[in-house]
Amino acid sequence: MKQENENGYEIEVEQIETKIECESCCISPGEHTGISGGVALTGFIDVEKIITVKNNGCKEKLFLEKKLPFQIVILNLGRQNDNASVKPKKSS
After folding, report:
1. Calpha distance 71→4 (Å, rounded)
2. Residue 6's domain spans which residues?
3. Cα dihedral 31/34/38/41 (nearest 10)
4. What is the structure's pLDDT at 90?
5. Which domain of life is it from (predicted)?
6. Does 91 reside within a domain?
7. Predicted pLDDT at 50
8. Can you name the residues that pair with 24 across neighbouring β-strands?
9. Residue 16, pLDDT above cutoff 90
10. Burial bucket for residue 88 (CB in 10 Å: 0-12, 13-18, 19+)
């Protein structure tokens, strides 16, 4: 990606590498919760970029490394089988 601003600076961003480090754990079904299981993912996205700034013939390269944390939870929602808590409909 290349961009030039009104002051004559030219900025270029080059992505070197993106890595994902992740751990997972299973979520057990809960009684009377409507959740039939799932998984939780926790980790980091490691982003490496080189930023090049040019102005009046001068060129400066900067290295950027950033670890961004993330957490994702996926729940499998199921139907509750507890019929005792459901009130029957009365027919008129």
Report:
1. 36
2. 2-78
3. -100
4. 55
5. Bacteria
6. no
7. 92
8. 41
9. no
10. exposed
